[in-house]
Prior knowledge:
The protein is mostly helical. It is 74% helix and 0% strand. The protein is elongated.
Amino acid sequence: MKMKNGFLFSLILACAAAAGLATPAGAQSDSQKNVTPAKYRKVNKKQAPAAKTHKVWTDDDLATVRTAADTYAERETAQAQAATAATQQQTDAAKQASATSAKPPKTPPLAHANSVDDADKKIAWEERDIQAQEEFIDRTQRELDQAPSDQREHLQKVIEENQKILADTRKELAGLQAQRKQLEKPTPRP
């Protein structure tokens, strides 16, 4: 990859150098065509300052550019690797911290009720959802009992995943019921 980039960079610089050399050569040929004798030329008392000369790149200059580019690329790669390593360490530390914590983090309910009527509707929905999930787990358990050995592992994973979902849904239902109780209480007037 470095060799390809180095070749491409050299090619670009060579083209730029060729274009830079061609321009002054063309300018010289045009200026030589319109040469007038000194006695017919107007003499300007105010001469413009000399134009800045353009840098001509030599092989020595290209070598420093190449090494600078390589150094830059190595530095960028090292920074990216360091960032990846730091991110990996943070995720490992987070996994260890979550695995060692005795108490699961308190998560707010996913559903939020705005009124008692809204809470009743959402509670009814969650109860129907829980019932459907329990029926699905029961059907999958019956399939697992009759399934061939090559399908048992997959069905067991499906049951475990759905049991986790069912537990989350039950937590959400409990949160909605608590919200409903809060909404039933009359708000004190100041």
